[in-house]
Amino acid sequence: MTKEQITARLKDKFGPELEIVENNQPEPYFYISMAKYYELCSYAKNDPQLDFDFLFQLGAVHYPDDRFEVALCLCSHEKNHKAVVKVRLDHDNPETVTISDIWKAANWFEREAMELFGIGFFGHPDPQPLLLYDDWDYGYPMRKGWTGPDFVPMPEK
Amino acid sequence: MGIIEKVPAYIERLPGGGIVTTSMDWVLNQSRASSLWYMLFGLACCAIEMMAAGASRYDFDRFGMIFRASPRQADLMFVAGTVTHKMSKRVKLLYEQMAEPSYVFAMGGCACNGGPFYYDCYSVLKGIDQVIPVDIYIPGCPPRPESLMEGCLKLQEKIKKEKMSDWASDRKEV
Amino acid sequence: MLEFDKVMLELYGFLAAWCAARSIPLIWLDLTVMIIAGLIMIGVLSLAALFLVWWERKVSAHLQDRLGPMRTGTHGVLQTLADGIKLLQKEDIVPSAADKRVYFWAPVVAFVAAYLAYIVIPFGKGLIARDLNIGILYIIAITSFTVISLLMAGWASNNKYALLGGMRSAAQIVSYEVPLTISVLGAVMLAGSLSMVDIVEAQGPYFWKWYWLPQILGFGIYFISATAEANRTPFDLPEAEQELVAGFNVEYSGMKFAMFFLAEFVNMFTISAIATTLFLGGWQPPLPGLAFIPSWIWFMGKTLFLVFVLMWFRWTYPRLRVDQLMNFAWKFLLPLAFLNLILTGLGVYFFG
Predict the structure, then answer these.
(1) pLDDT value at position C181?
(2) What angle do CA C174, C180, C186 make, to 5 degrees?
């Protein structure tokens, strides 16, 4: 399906909750509200025309102006199209629902985001740290403005 | 090895004893320098350069260095690649497994002082010499096999300067 | 001039007369001769192991288009000496949870087992320590000794990789002994005797009459099984570097490791020597006209050629997995060995 067809199909289903981002990439970028996030993901996976059966990246973002977002990159093997879905999170208490029961790959991606950014995922089956070492207790390293014991920030020019 | 450590000091005090110790030194140092068996501890990209240095075009076996998998049988450890905090404990463990006398090479920028990961990085250990004693530093990202060989030759020079009378003070605390 | 058998016999006769003149019982002479022969053998074999270690590194290097040791002595001839002196200087580590006595004795057993086989190997005409009339049977018994040392090493190291390596190695050696023994029986049937000297003499100084031609299948099976017995690639999974971090000798350092290392090379020499004796005519020259070259030179030349072939195998073939290895022994080599035995038996019965 082309970029316009995917956009049209999702806009039909989700209407005002979906926000389309203008870009000049071959794949469409969407913002979805937190309430419809899980529904969009299961629709994207199960719909026979969209058929996004492969989540190849789930990443968290922390902007310098203190906004948190979670971005998903979806892809379909059969239909050969991609899409990017983003959801804005609350900056005091960044939490959202887990989608690891829709795509198994999200399990580890969400563990990484939990550990490095401090984003909570409700209903995650295995919320353990993934990458950092065992006695790490210096906070969430990937947040902007984090400092730790061995951290040397890039000097200003 | 208690009493054997004191023997060289006694021999040196005898008249003409200096010749005995220096010739013994020469033989022992030459043999250790010409038969450095290395344990390939390739962690990242520098490992590829090390493999290239051990392969046909730049050959390590010319210096007598062969690859042994087990740290017990190796006397040289190339720390080739980026060492993270998580990995540093295991590096220390492996260093302690090596039998004396043993030497360590810090190969590449990341092992020397953190390399390109020095600024703005939470996970990389800034230089392997924070956990184990390093003998030779080879900068580069990655260093060419010729640099690696220059490092090996410098290590051979360093070994040839060692003395038997330093044995007692050289033991590593485990 | 270089015919050692005549020289030795004359020397022995002279010394026996000297002893009789001073009325010393002959037993002392025999005992001294035996001890000296044993020491000479250990010396010669250690030199051979030294040479083989250097040669392996050079051969493997040239097969891989590189150079091998070049710095220690011209073309690296002193490399093994340097290795040996370095290994003497290494710290001797004994793991704290290891079984200390078994850990200590494993390399000794490996070393002794490797050397004991040389009592019955004929290095030349008359150059054999003891011509036992069950020579080949003795050798097969001794080569199974190495299994014990590997199991001891694997168990005593208190390390799961060492144990796995030791177990796999024991399984491999024990499985490959069966086709080895049966393939050897073919040559024994043709010669009509178990004694090594009889087998060599029955082959005669014509290279088409040596047993490699009538027993071509047996030779092949013997050589493959012997490669597995010596833990050489393509059967060296027990000491595979990538999978098992040097296998059963992972916890050994310094001189103990050197003993395992040397025992492997001595084993390699043993199996080539046995193959030469059984199938390639031992110390016989290929044509009677070439008999002016001393017999021990023929023996060493043939054995070193087979050692070279073993090294060639190592750097040509990929390694077999342990289940493929066992399949190969039990389902392929063993039926072939039986076939060889039956055909040889029928041949000997009908054609005398």
Answers:
(1) 93
(2) 150
Contact A35, A117 (CB under 8 A): no
For an interface test with A, which of B89, B91, B123 has the most A Cβ atoms less than 10 Å from its Cβ? B123
Smallest CA–CA separation between C224 and chain B, in Å?
A: 26
Other beta carbons less than 10 A from residue B81's beta carbon = 24
Helix (H) or strand (E) holding B136: strand B136-138
**Contact criterion met (CB < 8 Å) for C66 and B75:** no
Structure tokens at C153: 């090493």
Residue of B nearest to A143 (CA): B122
pLDDT digits (tens, 9 = 90+) for C26-65: 888 888 888 888 888 888 888 888 899 999 999 999 999 9
Distance CA C245, CA C248 (A): 9
Determine the Cα–Cα distance for residues C287 and C291; give it in Å rounded to an integer. Answer: 7
Give the tokens for residue C167.
């177990």
Residue B87 CA to residue B133 CA, distance in Å, equals: 16
C174 contacts C326 by C-beta, under 8 angstroms: no
CA pair distance A89, A83, nearest whole angstrom? 20
Structure-derived torsion over alpha carbons of residues C39, C42, C44, C48, reported in degrees to the nearest 10:
-170
Helix (H, G, I), strand (E, B) or coil at B24: helix
Is the distance from CB of C190 to CB of C282 less than 8 angstroms?
no
DSSP code of B124? B
- H-type alpha helices, C117-215: 135-143, 145-156, 160-191, 196-203
CB count within 10 Å of CB B32 equals: 21
Chains that touch A (3 or more CB pairs under 8 A): B
Residue range C90-103: mean pLDDT, rounded: 82
Q: Is the pLDDT of residue C243 over 70?
A: no
Contacts of A142 in chain B (CB under 8 A): 122
Shortest CA distance to B38 belongs to which of B127, B83, B100, B102? B102
The separation between CA A146 and the C-alpha centre of its own chain, rounded to angstroms, equals 21
Cα A36 to Cα A18: distance, rounded to the nearest angstrom: 9
Distance CA C263, CA C255 (A): 12
| Residues in CB range of A72: below 8 A, 6 or more apart | A41, A55, A57, A58, A84, A85, A86, A99
Q: Are C235 and C327 in contact (CB under 8 A)?
A: no
Among C172, C302, C332, residue whose Cα is nearest residue C244? C172
- Is it the case that chain C and chain B have 3 or more CB pairs lying under 8 Å apart? yes
ipTM: 0.85
CA–CA gap between residue A8 and residue C258 (Å, rounded): 74
Tokens standing for B32? 């250790």
CA angle C161, C167, C169 (to 5 degrees): 100
Lookup: tokens for A2: 């082309």
Residue with tokens 């010729």: B146
Minimal Cα–Cα distance from A18 to chain B, Å?
36
pLDDT for B154 equals: 94
Beta bridge partners of A59: A71
Using DSSP, state whether A48 is helix, strand or coil.
Answer: coil
| Per-residue model confidence (pLDDT) at position B3 | 63
- Expressed in angstroms, the distance from the first to the final Cα of chain A is 47
Mean pLDDT of B127-150: 91
Task: Check: CB of residue A5 under 8 Å from CB of residue A27.
Answer: no
Q: Is the pLDDT of residue B126 over 60?
A: yes
